[in-house]
Amino acid sequence: MAARKRPANLTGGSGTGAFDYPGALDEICDRIEGGETMAAIAASKGVHRSQLTRWVAAKADRRERVDMARMMSAEALSEMAMDKIINAKGSEGLTRARELAHHLRWLARMRDPKRFGDRVVQEHVGDGGGPVKTEAVVNVEAGEAYLRLINGSA
């Protein structure tokens, strides 16, 4: 059985790998903010997505910057969803565009739930939007029977 060909390493044999240059992190973050996937970015550099992920995960500052870029990409994903629907041609194209837009909006919700997530507000209100009225009901006969029982004068 032939060995599987592995993609080039991030640092490459010469130490000048796909992301081993000044501004690499800025470029990656810009592309993520623009809505590109990690897989597409890695493929454009000739490496596997997992290698890009490991490169990002290797340093805390990279992880933080990429996480922020993902959150900021939510706006781009939302805009892409709208563009897909606006530019759809024919009923089949519109159906496909709706499905893609639905997925892009879902991604936006996952990446920035504060801005694009579903908001759930629960309020307990009474009649007319006012406060909830409570009422205490006391059974006097039961209370008197209890007192007689504990005092031994049953």
3D architecture notes:
There is one protein chain. The chain has seven helices and no strands. The chain is elongated and about 95 Å long. The protein is an all-alpha fold. Helix 2 packs across helix 3 (49-57). Helix content is 59%, strand content 0%.
Question: What descriptors fit this protein?
Answer:
Sf6_terminase, mainly alpha, 154 residues, 0% strand, 7 helices, elongated
Would you report the number of β strands?
Answer: 0
Tell me the structural class: mainly alpha
Relative strand content: under 5%
Element-by-element helix/strand order? HHHHHHH
Unreliable sequence segments = 4-16
The end-to-end span amounts to 94 Å
> What is the approximate shape?
elongated
Radius of gyration: 30 Å
Q: What's the main sheet like?
A: none
Overall mean pLDDT: 81
Give the count of helical stretches.
Answer: 7
Q: Give helix % range.
A: 55-70%
Please give a quick description of this structure.
With 154 residues, the chain is mainly α. It has helices at residues 24-33, 38-44, 49-57, 60-86, 90-111, 113-116, 140-151.
List the topology elements.
Blueprint lengths: L23 H10 L4 H7 L4 H9 L2 H27 L3 H22 L1 H4 L23 H12 L3
